[in-house]
Amino acid sequence: xxxxxxxxxxxxxxxxxxxxxxxxxxxxxxxxxxxxxxxxxxxxxxxxxxxxxxxxxxxxxxxxxxxxxxx
Amino acid sequence: xxxxxxxxxxxxxxxxxxxxxxxxxxxxxxxxxxxxxxxxxxxxxxxxxxxxxxxxxxxxxxxxxxxxxxxxxxxxxxxxxxxxxxxxxxxxxxxxxxxxxxxxxxxxxxxxxxxxxxxxxxxxxxxxxxxxxxxxxxxxxxx
Lengths: 71, 143
Known about the structure:
The structure holds 2 protein chains of 2 kinds.
Chain A: E1 6-8, H1 10-16, H2 22-29, H3 33-40, H4 48-57, H5 62-65, E2 66-68
Antiparallel strand pairs in A: 1-2
Helix pairs in contact in A: 2-3
Chain B: H1 3-32, H2 39-58, H3 70-102, H4 110-138
Helix pairs in contact in B: 1-2, 1-4, 3-4
């Protein structure tokens, strides 16, 4: 199984939603800021519940935030 | 730094201080023949470092700060696995060393066995804390 097969648009979406900071997003979804940084850098793939919480913050679907590479 | 990283760092600092001052105290005690109660000075230093590290770990950056999350739990689990494996490696190395020094039918005192277990426990905790810091720095793709 290839590494980092999940890419995401979290960073772009944060800026599109009123310059939301990493800390703000972390507080809204209930994780630490380090986890948001790791997700943005592709170092960590979030669990399904967390991915849903992140997509809800941006009022969009999970597929628009996270994309599976090598499909 | 989040709480988990702070805990790991504080653990390593306490172990380093414990080891460094312990060694220093032993050398001073043996060379200068100081009063045996000077060990309380060493314990006071340890207690001070312990309290300071506790303040560092439990001070929150903000009231909304999340203490732990799913990534922290995953990293702690992996660090615990590394620590568990290190215990067996250290026990194996220790048995090998004892076998060389004492021979196949040699024996050791209970106090030495307790000391070995104590040091292996401390080393395992140090491995656990180091693994946490390494995984935060270099962990990639949930691995």
